[in-house]
Protein backbone atom coordinates (compact mmCIF):
# COMPACT_ATOMS: atom_id res chain seq x y z
CA UNK A 1 0.00 0.00 0.00
CA UNK A 2 1.28 3.41 -0.95
CA UNK A 3 0.00 6.92 -1.33
CA UNK A 4 -0.68 8.44 -4.71
CA UNK A 5 -1.77 11.97 -5.53
CA UNK A 6 -3.64 12.14 -8.84
CA UNK A 7 -4.10 15.45 -10.62
CA UNK A 8 -6.65 15.52 -13.42
CA UNK A 9 -6.26 18.33 -15.98
CA UNK A 10 -8.96 20.34 -17.75
CA UNK A 11 -9.82 17.89 -20.52
CA UNK A 12 -9.97 15.02 -17.99
CA UNK A 13 -12.71 16.82 -16.04
CA UNK A 14 -14.43 18.65 -18.89
CA UNK A 15 -17.85 16.97 -18.60
CA UNK A 16 -19.80 14.15 -16.95
CA UNK A 17 -18.31 11.48 -19.25
CA UNK A 18 -14.77 12.48 -18.35
CA UNK A 19 -15.62 12.69 -14.65
CA UNK A 20 -17.00 9.14 -14.95
CA UNK A 21 -13.57 8.06 -16.26
CA UNK A 22 -11.69 9.67 -13.40
CA UNK A 23 -13.99 8.02 -10.88
CA UNK A 24 -13.18 4.66 -12.43
CA UNK A 25 -9.45 5.37 -12.42
CA UNK A 26 -9.59 6.43 -8.78
CA UNK A 27 -11.72 3.50 -7.66
CA UNK A 28 -9.50 1.01 -9.48
CA UNK A 29 -6.43 2.17 -7.62
CA UNK A 30 -6.87 2.20 -3.85
CA UNK A 31 -3.55 4.00 -3.47
CA UNK A 32 -5.02 7.19 -4.94
CA UNK A 33 -5.81 9.13 -1.78
CA UNK A 34 -5.84 12.73 -2.93
CA UNK A 35 -7.35 13.96 -6.16
CA UNK A 36 -6.45 17.43 -7.43
CA UNK A 37 -8.72 18.82 -10.14
CA UNK A 38 -8.60 21.57 -12.74
CA UNK A 39 -11.55 23.60 -13.98
CA UNK A 40 -13.49 22.01 -16.86
CA UNK A 41 -11.38 22.29 -20.02
CA UNK A 42 -12.26 21.86 -23.67
CA UNK A 43 -14.76 19.13 -24.61
CA UNK A 44 -13.95 19.49 -28.32
CA UNK A 45 -11.50 21.55 -30.37
CA UNK A 46 -13.57 24.73 -30.72
CA UNK A 47 -14.80 24.66 -27.13
CA UNK A 48 -13.66 27.22 -24.53
CA UNK A 49 -12.16 26.34 -21.14
CA UNK A 50 -14.18 27.51 -18.13
CA UNK A 51 -11.13 29.44 -16.87
CA UNK A 52 -11.02 31.38 -20.15
CA UNK A 53 -14.75 32.10 -19.86
CA UNK A 54 -14.19 33.45 -16.36
CA UNK A 55 -11.41 35.75 -17.63
CA UNK A 56 -13.79 36.84 -20.37
CA UNK A 57 -16.49 37.75 -17.81
CA UNK A 58 -13.92 39.88 -15.99
CA UNK A 59 -12.72 41.72 -19.06
CA UNK A 60 -16.35 42.48 -19.95
CA UNK A 61 -17.09 43.64 -16.42
CA UNK A 62 -13.98 45.79 -16.28
CA UNK A 63 -14.88 47.44 -19.61
CA UNK A 64 -18.45 47.96 -18.38
CA UNK A 65 -19.84 45.58 -20.98
CA UNK A 66 -22.60 43.07 -20.23
CA UNK A 67 -21.16 39.76 -19.11
CA UNK A 68 -24.36 37.93 -18.17
CA UNK A 69 -24.38 35.81 -21.31
CA UNK A 70 -20.86 34.53 -20.72
CA UNK A 71 -21.60 33.87 -17.06
CA UNK A 72 -24.75 32.03 -18.09
CA UNK A 73 -22.68 29.73 -20.33
CA UNK A 74 -20.50 28.89 -17.30
CA UNK A 75 -23.58 28.22 -15.13
CA UNK A 76 -25.02 25.91 -17.75
CA UNK A 77 -21.86 23.82 -17.86
CA UNK A 78 -21.87 23.17 -14.12
CA UNK A 79 -25.63 22.68 -13.78
CA UNK A 80 -25.57 20.30 -16.72
CA UNK A 81 -22.71 18.30 -15.18
CA UNK A 82 -24.54 18.06 -11.88
CA UNK A 83 -27.67 16.80 -13.65
CA UNK A 84 -25.80 14.32 -15.83
CA UNK A 85 -24.00 12.91 -12.80
CA UNK A 86 -27.27 12.72 -10.89
CA UNK A 87 -26.04 14.64 -7.83
CA UNK A 88 -26.81 17.80 -5.92
CA UNK A 89 -23.53 19.57 -5.27
CA UNK A 90 -25.22 22.90 -4.54
CA UNK A 91 -24.23 24.46 -7.87
CA UNK A 92 -27.22 26.84 -8.16
CA UNK A 93 -26.43 28.40 -4.78
CA UNK A 94 -22.67 28.52 -5.36
CA UNK A 95 -23.10 30.12 -8.79
CA UNK A 96 -25.49 32.75 -7.42
CA UNK A 97 -22.89 33.66 -4.80
CA UNK A 98 -20.14 33.96 -7.43
CA UNK A 99 -22.35 36.17 -9.59
CA UNK A 100 -23.01 38.39 -6.57
CA UNK A 101 -19.27 38.69 -5.89
CA UNK A 102 -18.60 39.41 -9.55
CA UNK A 103 -21.13 42.25 -9.48
CA UNK A 104 -19.60 43.64 -6.31
CA UNK A 105 -16.19 43.90 -7.95
CA UNK A 106 -14.52 40.67 -6.75
CA UNK A 107 -10.82 40.31 -7.64
CA UNK A 108 -9.57 38.57 -10.80
CA UNK A 109 -7.90 35.82 -8.76
CA UNK A 110 -11.08 35.07 -6.83
CA UNK A 111 -13.24 34.91 -9.96
CA UNK A 112 -10.93 32.76 -12.09
CA UNK A 113 -10.25 30.37 -9.20
CA UNK A 114 -13.95 29.52 -9.05
CA UNK A 115 -13.58 27.20 -12.06
CA UNK A 116 -11.52 24.80 -9.94
CA UNK A 117 -13.54 25.43 -6.76
CA UNK A 118 -16.87 24.45 -8.36
CA UNK A 119 -15.41 21.46 -10.15
CA UNK A 120 -13.87 20.29 -6.88
CA UNK A 121 -17.28 20.48 -5.22
CA UNK A 122 -18.94 18.44 -7.98
CA UNK A 123 -16.22 15.81 -8.16
CA UNK A 124 -15.97 15.39 -4.37
CA UNK A 125 -19.71 14.84 -4.16
CA UNK A 126 -19.77 12.42 -7.09
CA UNK A 127 -16.83 10.38 -5.84
CA UNK A 128 -18.00 10.39 -2.22
CA UNK A 129 -14.75 12.01 -1.05
CA UNK A 130 -14.18 14.94 1.27
CA UNK A 131 -13.81 18.41 -0.33
CA UNK A 132 -10.77 20.33 0.90
CA UNK A 133 -10.47 23.99 -0.03
CA UNK A 134 -6.84 24.95 -0.83
CA UNK A 135 -7.59 28.50 0.36
CA UNK A 136 -7.12 26.97 3.82
CA UNK A 137 -3.64 25.57 3.25
CA UNK A 138 -1.95 26.78 0.02
CA UNK A 139 -0.35 29.97 1.26
CA UNK A 140 0.94 33.13 -0.40
CA UNK A 141 2.44 36.22 1.23
CA UNK A 142 0.46 39.44 1.05
CA UNK A 143 2.71 40.46 -1.85
CA UNK A 144 1.69 37.28 -3.67
CA UNK A 145 4.83 35.18 -3.19
CA UNK A 146 4.14 31.48 -2.85
CA UNK A 147 5.16 30.33 0.66
CA UNK A 148 6.37 26.84 -0.07
CA UNK A 149 7.55 25.69 3.35
CA UNK A 150 4.57 27.08 5.21
CA UNK A 151 2.26 25.50 2.65
CA UNK A 152 4.03 22.18 2.99
CA UNK A 153 3.37 22.16 6.73
CA UNK A 154 -0.19 23.42 6.38
CA UNK A 155 -1.13 20.75 3.82
CA UNK A 156 0.39 17.99 5.93
CA UNK A 157 -1.63 19.23 8.91
CA UNK A 158 -4.87 19.66 6.95
CA UNK A 159 -4.71 16.19 5.39
CA UNK A 160 -3.31 14.28 8.37
CA UNK A 161 -6.61 12.82 9.45
CA UNK A 162 -8.26 12.90 6.08
CA UNK A 163 -7.97 9.59 4.31
CA UNK A 164 -9.28 10.66 0.91
CA UNK A 165 -9.99 14.11 -0.45
CA UNK A 166 -10.66 16.11 -3.58
CA UNK A 167 -8.69 19.36 -3.74
CA UNK A 168 -9.21 22.06 -6.37
CA UNK A 169 -5.96 23.05 -8.08
CA UNK A 170 -4.64 26.45 -9.19
CA UNK A 171 -5.25 28.64 -6.12
CA UNK A 172 -4.63 29.32 -2.47
CA UNK A 173 -4.88 32.41 -0.29
CA UNK A 174 -2.78 35.31 0.93
CA UNK A 175 -2.12 35.98 4.60
CA UNK A 176 -5.11 38.37 4.62
CA UNK A 177 -7.37 35.54 3.38
CA UNK A 178 -7.87 36.86 -0.17
CA UNK A 179 -7.64 34.34 -2.99
CA UNK A 180 -4.42 34.12 -5.03
CA UNK A 181 -3.84 31.89 -8.05
CA UNK A 182 -0.71 30.38 -9.52
CA UNK A 183 0.02 31.23 -13.16
CA UNK A 184 -1.98 29.51 -15.92
CA UNK A 185 -1.78 25.74 -15.86
CA UNK A 186 -1.07 25.98 -12.12
CA UNK A 187 -3.14 22.97 -11.02
CA UNK A 188 -0.02 20.93 -11.90
CA UNK A 189 1.77 22.84 -9.12
CA UNK A 190 -1.00 22.14 -6.59
CA UNK A 191 -0.74 18.42 -7.37
CA UNK A 192 3.00 18.47 -6.84
CA UNK A 193 2.94 20.40 -3.55
CA UNK A 194 0.22 18.11 -2.20
CA UNK A 195 2.30 15.07 -3.24
CA UNK A 196 5.31 16.48 -1.39
CA UNK A 197 3.35 17.35 1.76
CA UNK A 198 1.70 13.93 2.11
CA UNK A 199 4.97 12.17 1.19
CA UNK A 200 3.32 10.43 -1.73
CA UNK A 201 4.99 7.51 -3.46
CA UNK A 202 3.93 8.80 -6.88
CA UNK A 203 2.43 11.99 -8.28
CA UNK A 204 0.18 11.02 -11.18
CA UNK A 205 -0.58 13.80 -13.62
CA UNK A 206 -3.52 12.71 -15.79
CA UNK A 207 -4.05 14.54 -19.07
CA UNK A 208 -5.06 13.91 -22.69
CA UNK A 209 -1.81 12.45 -24.05
CA UNK A 210 -0.11 9.16 -23.15
CA UNK A 211 2.88 10.83 -21.58
CA UNK A 212 5.62 13.18 -22.58
CA UNK A 213 6.27 13.17 -26.32
CA UNK A 214 9.57 14.10 -27.95
CA UNK A 215 7.88 17.14 -29.53
CA UNK A 216 4.60 19.03 -29.31
CA UNK A 217 1.97 16.86 -31.05
CA UNK A 218 0.34 20.02 -32.42
CA UNK A 219 3.51 20.64 -34.45
CA UNK A 220 4.92 17.19 -35.23
CA UNK A 221 2.58 14.40 -36.37
CA UNK A 222 2.61 11.47 -33.99
CA UNK A 223 5.77 12.29 -32.07
CA UNK A 224 7.50 9.43 -30.30
CA UNK A 225 6.54 8.97 -26.61
CA UNK A 226 9.22 8.83 -23.93
CA UNK A 227 8.88 6.14 -21.27
CA UNK A 228 11.04 7.94 -18.71
CA UNK A 229 12.86 11.23 -18.41
CA UNK A 230 14.73 13.09 -15.66
CA UNK A 231 13.33 16.02 -13.68
CA UNK A 232 16.21 18.12 -15.05
CA UNK A 233 15.48 17.38 -18.69
CA UNK A 234 11.77 17.90 -18.27
CA UNK A 235 12.31 21.14 -16.39
CA UNK A 236 14.31 22.54 -19.31
CA UNK A 237 11.66 21.38 -21.78
CA UNK A 238 8.72 22.62 -19.69
CA UNK A 239 10.40 25.98 -19.16
CA UNK A 240 11.04 26.33 -22.87
CA UNK A 241 7.43 25.60 -23.79
CA UNK A 242 6.50 21.91 -23.49
CA UNK A 243 3.18 22.76 -21.91
CA UNK A 244 2.27 19.24 -20.82
CA UNK A 245 3.50 20.01 -17.28
CA UNK A 246 3.87 23.43 -15.61
CA UNK A 247 7.60 24.00 -15.08
CA UNK A 248 7.07 24.94 -11.42
CA UNK A 249 5.41 21.59 -10.77
CA UNK A 250 8.72 19.78 -11.02
CA UNK A 251 10.58 21.26 -8.02
CA UNK A 252 8.30 20.10 -5.14
CA UNK A 253 8.21 16.50 -6.39
CA UNK A 254 11.90 16.57 -7.13
CA UNK A 255 13.05 17.78 -3.67
CA UNK A 256 10.97 15.03 -2.12
CA UNK A 257 12.20 12.43 -4.64
CA UNK A 258 8.65 11.65 -5.76
CA UNK A 259 8.33 10.28 -9.31
CA UNK A 260 5.86 12.12 -11.54
CA UNK A 261 3.88 9.87 -13.85
CA UNK A 262 2.16 11.56 -16.80
CA UNK A 263 -0.88 9.48 -17.78
CA UNK A 264 -3.75 9.60 -20.27
CA UNK A 265 -7.28 9.69 -18.80
CA UNK A 266 -8.66 8.43 -22.12
CA UNK A 267 -6.19 5.51 -22.28
CA UNK A 268 -5.70 4.56 -18.63
CA UNK A 269 -3.88 1.33 -19.49
CA UNK A 270 -1.02 3.18 -21.18
CA UNK A 271 1.93 3.43 -18.76
CA UNK A 272 2.69 7.06 -19.71
CA UNK A 273 5.97 8.75 -18.83
CA UNK A 274 7.85 8.40 -15.55
CA UNK A 275 9.83 11.44 -14.43
CA UNK A 276 12.58 10.65 -11.90
CA UNK A 277 16.15 11.69 -11.26
CA UNK A 278 17.42 9.16 -13.82
CA UNK A 279 18.21 10.35 -17.36
CA UNK A 280 15.69 9.51 -20.09
CA UNK A 281 15.43 5.92 -21.18
CA UNK A 282 15.70 6.34 -24.93
CA UNK A 283 15.31 3.90 -27.79
CA UNK A 284 18.57 2.64 -29.32
CA UNK A 285 20.21 5.36 -31.42
CA UNK A 286 18.12 8.27 -30.11
CA UNK A 287 20.20 10.87 -28.26
CA UNK A 288 17.64 13.57 -27.59
CA UNK A 289 14.77 13.38 -25.15
CA UNK A 290 12.79 16.36 -26.33
CA UNK A 291 12.40 19.47 -28.44
CA UNK A 292 10.42 22.42 -27.12
CA UNK A 293 10.19 26.10 -27.68
CA UNK A 294 8.10 29.21 -27.85
CA UNK A 295 7.65 32.32 -29.90
CA UNK A 296 7.58 35.95 -28.87
CA UNK A 297 11.06 36.83 -27.75
CA UNK A 298 13.11 39.96 -28.44
CA UNK A 299 16.87 40.09 -28.79
CA UNK A 300 18.89 43.25 -28.31
CA UNK A 301 22.43 42.93 -29.62
CA UNK A 302 25.06 45.39 -28.51
CA UNK A 303 28.11 45.87 -30.73
CA UNK A 304 31.01 47.50 -28.93
CA UNK A 305 34.67 47.28 -29.81
CA UNK A 306 35.56 48.50 -26.29
CA UNK A 307 33.52 45.89 -24.46
CA UNK A 308 36.28 43.34 -23.92
CA UNK A 309 38.55 45.62 -21.87
CA UNK A 310 35.75 47.21 -19.87
CA UNK A 311 34.95 46.13 -16.36
CA UNK A 312 31.29 45.98 -15.39
CA UNK A 313 29.87 46.19 -18.92
CA UNK A 314 27.53 43.23 -18.52
CA UNK A 315 26.63 44.33 -14.99
CA UNK A 316 25.56 47.77 -16.23
CA UNK A 317 23.59 46.21 -19.07
CA UNK A 318 21.83 43.83 -16.66
CA UNK A 319 21.26 46.72 -14.24
CA UNK A 320 19.35 48.71 -16.87
CA UNK A 321 17.09 45.74 -17.46
CA UNK A 322 16.64 45.19 -13.73
CA UNK A 323 15.70 48.84 -13.24
CA UNK A 324 12.99 48.30 -15.84
CA UNK A 325 11.83 45.12 -14.10
CA UNK A 326 12.78 42.97 -17.09
CA UNK A 327 13.99 39.40 -16.56
CA UNK A 328 16.65 38.02 -18.89
CA UNK A 329 16.29 34.65 -20.66
CA UNK A 330 19.74 34.37 -22.26
CA UNK A 331 22.92 36.37 -22.76
CA UNK A 332 24.80 34.88 -25.73
CA UNK A 333 28.06 36.74 -26.39
CA UNK A 334 30.91 37.08 -28.86
CA UNK A 335 34.18 39.09 -28.81
CA UNK A 336 32.67 42.48 -29.61
CA UNK A 337 29.01 41.66 -29.18
CA UNK A 338 26.66 40.68 -26.45
CA UNK A 339 22.95 39.99 -26.85
CA UNK A 340 20.17 39.83 -24.33
CA UNK A 341 17.12 37.79 -25.04
CA UNK A 342 13.93 38.68 -23.21
CA UNK A 343 10.32 37.63 -23.40
CA UNK A 344 8.14 40.09 -25.34
CA UNK A 345 5.55 40.08 -22.58
CA UNK A 346 8.02 41.55 -20.06
CA UNK A 347 9.49 44.19 -22.37
CA UNK A 348 6.19 45.39 -23.78
CA UNK A 349 6.06 49.22 -23.68
CA UNK A 350 9.60 49.49 -22.25
CA UNK A 351 11.81 48.81 -25.25
CA UNK A 352 12.42 52.44 -26.27
CA UNK A 353 13.39 53.48 -22.75
CA UNK A 354 15.76 50.53 -22.45
CA UNK A 355 17.42 51.29 -25.77
CA UNK A 356 17.87 54.94 -24.74
CA UNK A 357 19.54 53.84 -21.52
CA UNK A 358 21.77 51.35 -23.39
CA UNK A 359 22.88 54.19 -25.70
CA UNK A 360 23.48 56.56 -22.81
CA UNK A 361 25.22 54.26 -20.34
CA UNK A 362 26.94 51.68 -22.55
CA UNK A 363 27.87 53.88 -25.52
CA UNK A 364 27.76 51.01 -28.02
CA UNK A 365 29.04 51.22 -31.61
CA UNK A 366 25.57 50.07 -32.64
CA UNK A 367 22.45 48.29 -31.38
CA UNK A 368 20.35 45.76 -33.24
CA UNK A 369 16.86 44.70 -32.18
CA UNK A 370 14.88 41.68 -33.36
CA UNK A 371 11.36 41.40 -32.01
CA UNK A 372 10.11 38.28 -33.78
CA UNK A 373 12.39 35.68 -32.31
CA UNK A 374 11.39 32.14 -31.38
CA UNK A 375 13.57 29.99 -29.13
CA UNK A 376 13.85 26.24 -29.55
CA UNK A 377 15.61 23.94 -27.09
CA UNK A 378 16.86 20.51 -28.04
CA UNK A 379 17.43 18.57 -24.84
CA UNK A 380 19.09 15.28 -23.98
CA UNK A 381 21.12 14.26 -20.94
CA UNK A 382 23.43 12.19 -23.11
CA UNK A 383 24.09 14.89 -25.70
CA UNK A 384 27.27 16.14 -24.06
CA UNK A 385 29.10 12.87 -24.56
CA UNK A 386 28.20 12.68 -28.27
CA UNK A 387 30.35 14.35 -30.86
CA UNK A 388 28.67 16.09 -33.74
CA UNK A 389 25.32 16.84 -32.08
CA UNK A 390 25.45 20.57 -32.83
CA UNK A 391 26.61 19.96 -36.38
CA UNK A 392 23.68 17.63 -36.94
CA UNK A 393 21.27 20.22 -35.58
CA UNK A 394 22.63 23.09 -37.63
CA UNK A 395 22.76 21.01 -40.80
CA UNK A 396 19.12 20.03 -40.32
CA UNK A 397 18.11 23.67 -39.96
CA UNK A 398 20.21 24.78 -42.93
CA UNK A 399 18.69 22.07 -45.11
CA UNK A 400 15.22 23.22 -44.09
CA UNK A 401 16.23 26.76 -45.09
CA UNK A 402 15.92 28.09 -41.53
CA UNK A 403 18.20 30.95 -40.66
CA UNK A 404 19.68 30.66 -37.14
CA UNK A 405 19.71 34.02 -35.34
CA UNK A 406 21.23 32.88 -32.07
CA UNK A 407 22.88 29.84 -30.51
CA UNK A 408 23.24 29.15 -26.80
CA UNK A 409 24.51 25.94 -25.34
CA UNK A 410 23.91 25.73 -21.60
CA UNK A 411 26.80 24.84 -19.30
CA UNK A 412 24.99 21.59 -18.51
CA UNK A 413 25.61 20.58 -22.16
CA UNK A 414 22.24 18.93 -21.96
CA UNK A 415 20.60 21.61 -23.98
CA UNK A 416 21.22 23.49 -27.23
CA UNK A 417 19.03 26.53 -27.74
CA UNK A 418 18.64 28.17 -31.11
CA UNK A 419 16.84 31.38 -31.93
CA UNK A 420 14.99 31.49 -35.24
CA UNK A 421 12.43 33.84 -36.78
CA UNK A 422 8.94 33.18 -35.35
CA UNK A 423 7.71 32.37 -38.87
CA UNK A 424 10.22 29.52 -39.05
CA UNK A 425 9.31 28.08 -35.63
CA UNK A 426 7.22 25.07 -36.67
CA UNK A 427 9.42 24.30 -39.70
CA UNK A 428 12.52 24.32 -37.49
CA UNK A 429 11.00 21.96 -34.90
CA UNK A 430 9.95 19.52 -37.61
CA UNK A 431 13.45 19.63 -39.13
CA UNK A 432 15.15 18.95 -35.77
CA UNK A 433 12.70 16.12 -35.04
CA UNK A 434 13.38 14.55 -38.42
CA UNK A 435 17.15 14.79 -37.98
CA UNK A 436 17.22 13.24 -34.51
CA UNK A 437 14.21 11.01 -34.17
CA UNK A 438 12.49 9.75 -37.27
P1 LIG B 1 -4.15 19.51 -18.87
O1 LIG B 1 -5.37 20.35 -19.14
O2 LIG B 1 -4.46 18.08 -18.64
O3 LIG B 1 -3.28 20.11 -17.83
P2 LIG B 1 -2.51 20.58 -20.99
O4 LIG B 1 -3.29 21.04 -22.16
O5 LIG B 1 -2.01 21.60 -20.02
O6 LIG B 1 -3.36 19.47 -20.24
O7 LIG B 1 -1.25 19.70 -21.44
C1 LIG B 1 -1.43 18.62 -22.33
C2 LIG B 1 -1.14 19.08 -23.74
O8 LIG B 1 0.22 19.49 -23.84
C3 LIG B 1 -1.29 18.01 -24.80
O9 LIG B 1 -2.62 17.90 -25.24
C4 LIG B 1 -0.34 18.49 -25.89
O10 LIG B 1 -1.05 19.12 -26.94
C5 LIG B 1 0.53 19.54 -25.22
N1 LIG B 1 1.97 19.28 -25.38
C6 LIG B 1 2.90 20.19 -25.76
N2 LIG B 1 4.11 19.66 -25.81
C7 LIG B 1 3.97 18.36 -25.46
C8 LIG B 1 4.88 17.27 -25.34
N3 LIG B 1 6.19 17.42 -25.60
N4 LIG B 1 4.41 16.07 -24.96
C9 LIG B 1 3.09 15.90 -24.70
N5 LIG B 1 2.17 16.89 -24.81
C10 LIG B 1 2.61 18.11 -25.18
N1 LIG C 1 -7.70 26.20 -14.95
C1 LIG C 1 -6.41 26.83 -14.89
C2 LIG C 1 -5.96 27.19 -16.30
O1 LIG C 1 -6.69 26.98 -17.24
C3 LIG C 1 -5.39 26.00 -14.18
C4 LIG C 1 -5.14 24.63 -14.74
O2 LIG C 1 -5.93 24.09 -15.54
O3 LIG C 1 -4.12 24.03 -14.37
O4 LIG C 1 -4.91 27.75 -16.45
MG1 LIG D 1 -1.97 21.76 -17.95
Topology:
Layout: E1 4-8, H1 16-28, E2 32-37, H2 50-62, H3 68-85, H4 91-103, H5 108-127, E3 130-131, E4 139-140, H6 148-159, E5 165-168, E6 171-174, E7 179-181, H7 187-197, E8 202-207, E9 228-230, H8 231-240, H9 250-255, E10 260-264, E11 273-276, E12 290-303, H10 313-323, E13 337-343, H11 344-347, H12 351-362, E14 366-379, H13 389-399, E15 404-409, E16 415-421, H14 425-436
Parallel strand pairs: 1-2, 1-8, 2-5, 3-5, 4-6, 8-10, 9-11
Antiparallel strand pairs: 6-7, 10-11, 12-13, 12-14, 14-16, 15-16
Bound molecules: adenosine-5'-diphosphate, aspartic acid and magnesium ion.
Count of discrete structural domains: 2
Query: Which regions are unreliable across 5 or more consecutive residues at pLDDT < 50?
Result: none
What portion of residues is helical? 25-40%
Main beta-sheet annotation: 8 strands, mixed
Distinct ligands: adenosine-5'-diphosphate, aspartic acid, magnesium ion
Provide structural commentary.
With 438 residues, this protein is α/β, with parallel strands linked by helices. The chain has 2 domains: 205 residues, Acetylglutamate kinase-like (Carbamate kinase), CATH 3.40.1160.10; 147 residues, VC0802-like (2-Layer Sandwich). The chain is 38% helix and 21% strand. The protein contains 14 helices and 16 strands. The strands form 3 sheets. An 8-stranded mixed beta sheet has the order 3-5-2-1-8-10-11-9, sandwiched between helices. A 5-stranded antiparallel beta sheet has the order 13-12-14-16-15. Strands 4-6-7 form a 3-stranded mixed beta sheet. Strand 1, helix 1 and strand 2 form a beta-alpha-beta unit. The chain is globular, with a radius of gyration of 24 Å. The two termini are 40 Å apart. The relative contact order is 0.10. The model has no long low-confidence stretch (mean pLDDT 95).
